[in-house]
Amino acid sequence: MLSKSPTEQYTYVMNCKQTTFSSEIPLVDLSKPDAKSLIVNACEEFGFFKVINHGVSMEAISKLESEAMNFFSLPLIEKEKAGPAYPFGYGNKSIGHSGDVGWLEYLLLTTNQEYNSPTLSSAFGQNTEKFRTVLDDYMCAVRKMACEILDFMAEGLNIQPNNVFSKLLMDKDSDSLFRMNHYPACPEQGEDDDENMIGFGEHTDPQIISLLRSNNTSGLQISLRDGSWISVPPDHSSFFINVGDSLQVMTNGRFRSVRHRVVANGLKSRLSMIYFVGPPLSEKIAPLPSLMKGKESLYKEFTWFEYKNSNYGSRLADNRLGHFERIAAS
Ligand SMILES: C=C1C[C@]23C[C@@]1(O)CC[C@H]2[C@@]12CC[C@H](O)[C@@](C)(C(=O)O1)[C@H]2[C@@H]3C(=O)O
Ligand SMILES: O=C(O)CCC(=O)C(=O)O
Ligand SMILES: [Fe+2]
């Protein structure tokens, strides 16, 4: 057993009441005219939705999935050549800088491939160029979908111009990340319903939105407004979109940055690939004036650099927006 000692500071085990697979997850067909309004409703209520007709080809997805599986199947000593995880590279079990652990291994990359080269070539060797090409094709297609979704969000919120969000992604200095998480099947998974191994502990994503695609293995759960957790039925042909902290601030709390986590699966391995849309470091993050309409701002303005700096040592589960919340005047 990994670590169940009550005295241990960090543990892989979490207690969670049994969660049910939910049919409540909002579904958005990007090719339909009601996409904008469905997206806005989903972001307000859940901060999360599933997307079909997303335009990312199954070919691009399968190629990257297969390259990723080849990588994660290498002996540990080979994978570690692509480490450490920070700033970019291979990581195993440890997440962030403050002792969080999970039942996973991962590759954390920047979407700006220039900075990935040393990381990648040390582990991929002669296969590096192939991996880069496959990764480029995938990221390019996901970026296109992200742009469309962000423009739909702005239009659904009646914000002009409609590229207020997508321009941050298209900026050459956009601080976006790409992550591939591999959760091996977990033999230590508790048999008890309310004891689960943590794959990736609960957290909100800091960025604007995250676009997640996984294989058909379950594990992802989201937290609802009432604090309860629901399991997201996996669907390898769809994408799942999370609202992140930055978008919650830009919409002055109208969109909800969704708390989510991954529980390990006792039988099957899970592979997920996530594109995190981040603003440039110098970008000022604040509620958009057109969404204020006389309302008070819930947040103090900050730059993306300031957010990252002040949260450098944060634990996964921390409320990272706490530093920037305005105390309402009584
Ligand atoms: C503990 C941490 C890991 C994390 C950075 C942080 O300080 C808090 C947020 C974590 C998170 C969640 C979404 C992404 O997976 C990630 C890359 C990010 O931008 O914020 C991770 C960070 C990480 O793994 O370093
Ligand atoms: O791997 C997953 O399914 C989700 C992981 C996640 O939330 C993250 O990497 O931020
Ligand atoms: Fe996340």
Question: What do these coordinates show?
Answer:
It contains eight helices and 15 strands. The termini are far apart. With 330 residues, it is α+β, with helices and mostly antiparallel strands. It has an eight-stranded mixed β-sheet with strand order 2-3-11-8-13-6-5-4. Strands 1-7-12-9-10 form a five-stranded antiparallel β-sheet, with no helix packed on it. Strands 14-15 form a two-stranded antiparallel ribbon. The protein has helices at residues 35-45, 58-72, 76-79, 117-124, 128-156, 166-170, 245-250, 304-310; strands at residues 13-15, 27-29, 48-52, 89-95, 100-110, 177-183, 195-203, 209-214, 220-223, 229-231, 239-243, 260-263, 270-277, 284-285, 302-303. 2-oxoglutaric acid binds at residues 179, 181, 200, 205, 212, 214, 220, 260, 262, 272, 274. Its cofactor is Fe cation. Its EC number is 1.14.11.13. This is gibberellin 2beta-dioxygenase. It is an enzyme of class 1 (oxidoreductase).
Features:
330 residues; alpha+beta; Jelly Rolls; 8-stranded mixed β-sheet; 5-stranded antiparallel β-sheet; disordered N terminus; binds the ligand C=C1C[C@]23C[C@@]1(O)CC[C@H]2[C@@]12CC[C@H](O)[C@@](C)(C(=O)O1)[C@H]2[C@@H]3C(=O)O; binds 2-oxoglutaric acid; binds fe (ii) ion; gibberellin 2-beta-dioxygenase activity; Oxoglu/Fe-dep_dioxygenase_dom; dioxygenase
